[in-house]
Design goal:
CATH superfamily of the largest domain: Aldolase class I
CATH topology of the largest domain: TIM Barrel
Shape: elongated
Distance between the termini: 37 Å
Radius of gyration: 21 Å
Bound molecules: phosphoenolpyruvate, manganese (II) ion
Helix content: 25-40%
CATH class of the largest domain: Alpha Beta
Number of helices: 10
């Protein structure tokens, strides 16, 4: 349920409401909006007696939350969430561009890429140190050494680091290095990992599972939000269909659909979404036109030599061209890169 506070409610009245909700065995999430403060109440409400909450001092109304996802819902927070992580801003009219290699390979590769993507206008640097690979025989990433190289690239360029965490035990380690924790498509429903990401105060980029519905994506985000971490970005990265001309099918209707239902910003990954470097620019432009708040794009100085995902990876000149097109599209739809 949502407890809507009166416009002039005092801090003491709010604290009193929060304490009452906790006594009912439920969890209060206080959301301070520009127009009103609300308390989203989550937990198993079956036995909770909401009677009495309406009459507490400072309370304007008590309403049910109709969506199955609660804290993520627009019903609870009308204003869009803007995610800020160092140099990277996603949402609020800014299209954040996160670019870099699929995997961190060595110092030269990550630092060269970081400089080049920054020059072209990216505001975040991606690079996998812990790689979840389909085959156990494929390159698994440089792990902690990869995190150290990413930190060096940040020191050289100032770019915020976006990197994947694949297990709950690694969250504290990755959170020490990363500006944004990426939770990959394969782990979207790893609930212990989502809970661990909810316990840190580092923004999260949550990728949609290739076989997950958007409602399941929102419920996965809810685990992180309910844990107390409100800085969550959703990422459409393509789903599995019968279609085989692309690696995945990239459904861009997800972007306006999500915007209508959640305040969380939406990022699109045209690299994994298509699997082909020659399709990335068009789909990045289409994503911006559809209202995406951010892009995450694979870029490598020499894609043919990349340790992973070379076929869908842009080289530096192609990334520059993609940025030029996206900048013009963003301006046409009232946003900027
Ligand atoms: C990646 O970003 O390199 C990656 C593994 O993506 P996904 O989890 O979407 O497959
Ligand atoms: Mn990849």
């Amino acid at each position: 349920m949502i407890i809507v506070m009166q416009a002039g409610a005092s801090e003491a009245e709010l604290e009193h409401v929060v304490a009452r909700v906790e006594r009912l065995g439920l969890r209060p999430h206080v959301i301070v909006g520009t127009e009103r403060t609300v308390v989203a109440v989550v937990g198993d409400e079956r036995d909770a007696v909401s009677r009495g909450l309406e009459t507490l001092p400072g309370v304007a109304a008590v309403l049910p939350i109709l969506a199955p996802y609660k804290v993520a819902s627009r019903e609870v927070q009308a204003e869009p969430t803007v995610v800020r992580a160092g140099s990277l801003t996603v949402g609020g009219g800014r299209v954040g561009v996160i670019a870099g290699p699929c995997s961190v390979e060595d110092r030269e590769q990550i630092v060269t890429t970081a400089r080049a993507v920054k020059e072209a206008g990216a505001t975040g640097l991606r690079g996998g140190a812990f790689k979840p690979r389909t085959s156990p025989y494929s390159f698994q990433g440089l792990k902690e050494q990869g995190l150290e190289l990413l930190a060096e690239a940040r020191a050289e360029t100032g770019l915020a680091i976006v990197t994947e965490v694949v297990s709950p035990e690694d969250v504290p380690l990755v959170a020490r290095f990363a500006d944004v924790l990426q939770i990959g498509a394969r782990n979207m429903q790893n609930y212990r990992l989502l809970e661990a990401a909810g316990r840190v105060q580092v923004p999260v980029l949550l990728k949609r599972g290739p076989a997950a519905t958007v409602e399941e994506l929102l419920l996965a985000a809810e685990y992180i939000l309910d844990g107390g971490n409100r800085q969550v970005m959703l990422c459409e990265r393509g789903i599995r269909t019968f279609e085989s001309h692309t690696r995945f099918t990239l459904p861009l209707a997800t972007v306006p659909w999500l915007h209508a239902r959640t305040h969380l910003p939406v990022v699109v990954d045209p690299s994994h979404g298509t699997g082909h470097a020659n399709l990335v620019e068009s789909m990045a432009a289409a994503a911006v036109a559809a209202g995406a708040d951010g892009l995450i794009v694979e870029v490598h100085p020499d894609p043919k030599a990349a340790a992973s995902d070379g076929g869908q990876t842009l080289d530096v000149p192609a990334f520059g061209r993609m940025m030029d097109v996206c900048r013009r599209i963003a301006a046409a739809v009232g946003r900027h890169l």
